Amino acid sequence: MTLRSDVAELLAGAGIVDVDVDDAVADEHVRSSAYRRVVSVTASSRSRDRDRAVAATILRDPVEMTSKTAVVDLVDRIAMKVTGPAEFRRWSAGLLPETDRLGTDAYREFIRRRVDDWTFYLSVQDGHVSTSAELAQVTNWMQRLLATGSTSPEVLALLAESGGSKKIRNIAKDRAGSRDPSMR
């Protein structure tokens, strides 16, 4: 497969006809924008059947930052669609082997960490009360997301006490102290 055929296949599969394939091949910024659109269409589908193939095709891109960014976007979008942590674990188990296409260890690790973060988030949303040790395993990005969005008094109390940064602890403390944390 060539980059041109990969980009053409992704665009056609997503029904995107207003992106010039040659422009996308020549310019990684155009390609990155096209990938974001492909990911948006793919994630909005009810079927998860094409996700792994789309990710594998994107991960063949020679500019690894471009492909990593698109795959992280896919992970984020799917995490917000699934019904819970078990469904997300099954979905990500199919996707993670594709990240081995990346030559940069840090990019593979970033995607794996994002999957771990979302698994933690979905578990918390599903009622799991985490420990400070479990909280320490997730990134500050996920801790901030939980601190600003969680309505669980237990989660907010844990973040207020054990959050990874002063900002996270303060946000959680302020929200935990309010009568209606979801209004802050």
Describe the structure.
The protein is an all-alpha fold. Helices cover 70% and strands 0% of the residues. The chain is built from eleven helices and no strands. Helix 1 (3-14) packs parallel to helix 3, helix 3 (28-44) packs parallel to helix 5 and helix 6 packs antiparallel against helix 7.
Give the arrangement of secondary structure elements.
Layout: H1 3-14, H2 21-26, H3 28-44, H4 51-58, H5 64-79, H6 85-95, H7 105-125, H8 132-136, H9 140-149, H10 153-162, H11 166-177
Shape: elongated
Helix content: 55-70%
Query: In angstroms, what is the radius of gyration?
Result: 19 Å
Q: Helix count?
A: 11
Strand content: under 5%
The major pleated sheet works out as: none
- Contiguous runs where pLDDT drops below 50 for at least 5 residues: 179-184
Compact overview of the structure:
With 184 residues, this protein is mostly helical. Helix content is 70%, strand content 0%. The termini are far apart.
Main attributes of the structure:
184 residues, mainly alpha, 11 helices
